[in-house]
Amino acid sequence: MTKVNPKAQITMFIILGIIILVSFLFLFFISNFIAEQRLEQQRQEITQHPFDAALVQRFTSICVDDALKKGIELIGMHGGFIFDASASSGEPAFITTAGGKVAAAIGPSVETPLYPCVEQFASKAPGFCHYGDYNGIIQFGSVQLPPLEGGAFSIEGILKKYISSYVKDCLTVQSFAADAGLSGYHVISEGDPSSSIEFRDNEIYVAVEYPLSVDIGGEEPITRFATFESRLQIRFRQLYAALQDAAQKDVANNSFPLLNAHASEFFTVSTIRVREPVRLAQLNPSVAVRSEKIGVDDLLTIEDSSSRIENRKYVFRLARRNRAPALEYIQRNPSYLYDTQDALKDTYDFLVIKGELVVFEPQAQDPDEGSVQFSYVGDFGTSAGVTFTASTAAISSGTYKQKVTVSDGHAADFQDVRVLVDAPLDAAFVVKNHIGQENIISPEDPFILDARDVEAQTHDQFAQHTFDWQLFADGQTFLEGTGSACSQLPGDFDACGSDVPDIDMITDATTRWPSLDHAITGSVQLTATRTYAKTNSSSTAPERVLTDTTIKQVTLVPCVLYRSTDAPYPFNLGDPYLANHACCEGDPADARTWNIKESSAVCHEQEACKDGYFLARKSYFCNGIRGNICGNDFSLEPFAPQLCGETALDGCNTIPASCQRETPWSVVNGDWCYGGTPSVLGATGCEQTCDRGEIVYVGNDPQFTFTGNVFQNVPGRTDFSCGCGGFSALNRKCLRTTDLVQGTCSLLGACG
Description:
It is a single chain. By secondary structure, the chain is of the alpha+beta class. Among the domains are: 326-422, Immunoglobulins (Immunoglobulin-like, Sandwich); 430-496 and 516-556; 663-752, no CATH class. Strands 1, 2, 3, 10, 11 and 12 form a six-stranded mixed sheet that branches. Strands 14-21-20-17-18 form a five-stranded mixed sheet, with no helix packed on it. Strands 23-29-28-25-26 form a five-stranded mixed sheet, with no helix packed on it. Helix 2 crosses helix 3. The protein starts with 5 loop residues before the first helix and ends in an 8-residue tail after the last strand.
């Protein structure tokens, strides 16, 4: 027998133990791994269990289906809204019915009297849109239906909020876990349910996502988005679009028959918008509509038999709050039509001429298809009825106010009608010549036709005036034209001004006049026209036009008899027409006797010089053509006895001051007037003066003496000299100019 080594045996046992230990550890790891895998699979199965298809269908039917059905029913019953019982503010306007609140789909918008205009009318007074003349938006109220989609305040947003809240309350996590057979597991909500909605042609589709997590005992919770779906066979998109269309047509046109809108497939809004489709009436299958009064408001109940909820017809209730009747703009030639862009030209709405009746026949329609009543209060009194009439015979012209109100018994629209009672047109005028004489005119003196008082008659500063003038005489029209209120003639009917025609040119304007060799009777006719604004803004609408004609008798004279201290033209320095009309003659009290003087008549006389040195009277003669100017012909008549002239006078040469207006060759104040230098005419005795004190005879006549008529033989002679100075004058006979004593010139140069 072989003997076993004890140490070897111990080694083998150790190795065998290690192998057994490793095998045990391996088997333990494998068994734990398999257990963990089985646990994970079980956990996955458990967490998946609440969201399997059968339970989704169950919860959809219970919660989401109910939420969609109830939500869309509430929206229909409340007119597009779901009222929160706890809300105290922020709710839409509504009417109260036996079935609860119904949001007002249609209600008032702009306050009267601006109604029915949407924008403020600040740039165009009066504060009322002129209907066809208004460039903004006309709305007989406002559509308050929420939009179908988009945003929290749409049908989509309202329904999503309702469904999410409903599902959250319906699908509590505790009942969800119990119903799913997950007792012992903890189900946690990770947030609120969220909904998405699609309004399809014939159904409403809703999907709800709910974030949930399941805790299966110490492990990390597993979160899943539970998705629930629901469909409802209701053609809500089509129905709601039809209701929006009807509501918009109702506020856009006050004659749209909303209460009977389902009965007519087309509606004509205007001449441009003809036969527009009414979508509510074109729904196929059709809907049933019934209306009822809720106080002063209207309630329409629309039943759609093709849309059902649990075999009930879908119902949508549309409320319309009472609106005021719309009063059409009361107008008659309103002043704003002068220029619709200029607010300053808007001063009155209604024009009458004093003596005419003020007649209002107001037009108004109630957009709620009700009856209306009119009332009137203001400057013309108080009354009621379909027509208002007032007299203007006993009142002064000016601007008045009358308030016109239209009411349906509950709401009212009004207009403060501004009435201009304007003065009648009176074509009064004045004919006045330049001298200031009325009704006497001449072709050679300016005159005016003045009708400026006609423009002052009206209270409408923007009214237009025209003036047609005609002058008749000798059976013919010899002056005519259209001018301003004041025309100055002769000329082209320009306005009166400070400028007058040049007196030398005025005869150019007389070619249209009859030949006037004597005064004749004529007439001036004025036809004045006043034009106001149009009746309305239509391009074919007539303007208000007043016309009046006045004829005034005048006397046409060849010239104007006017006497003035001013010399006749051209010898005056002022206004030539105010100079003396020296060539016109006649009885000042009778213009019919006025006539032009013959060409031989003296027009003007003035002093002048003849032959350059002798004072003469210069006479200008009339030309036989004009009465207010002198002709060019004249005559010169020397004064007798003969006198020297004056340097400043017409035709005078230079004459010494001491000799002016003195007798030639005379001694004046010690000075001797003489003509030592002969002129062409010979020595005149006016052209020179001697102030040396002596007149010296230088002739050869021994018998000459200064005695007797001292200057008898002096005029024209040249044998005299001035002063005794010089050798040539020595012992010559002389005459002292200081005392007229004669003597002889001494050696000292004196006369003694």
